[in-house]
Amino acid sequence: QVQLVESGGGFVQAGGSLRLTCSTPRIILSTFLSRSMGWYRQAPGKERELVAVATNDGVRRYADSVKGRFTISRDNRKKVVNLQMDSLKPEDTAVYYCAADRDGTSVVPDDYWGQGTQVTVSS
Fold it and tell me: What is the pLDDT of residue 93?
């Protein structure tokens, strides 16, 4: 079982920045290194969408809506995945979820999920 714990959500004005962190406190380093990791979001009344993914072989992909503004990174030593969100817009408001996949090269990680963290961007 892979436990994912998100932190860093909050309230910010448009144009501001937030940094989300997904920690994996109960897995060993080799397990973390073998997993593909990603961030999804779900806004009220909308379907969950994949925002960014970081595979274990270095692939990084982003939703078109966040390209150039969001950056996903893995800190393997700390076993965390970060999502740096800059130039935030009101439409970025959503619950953000961390996800992991047993397939380290998966670009759609969806085997394990965190509980989510709320991000609210005011205009």
Answer: 98
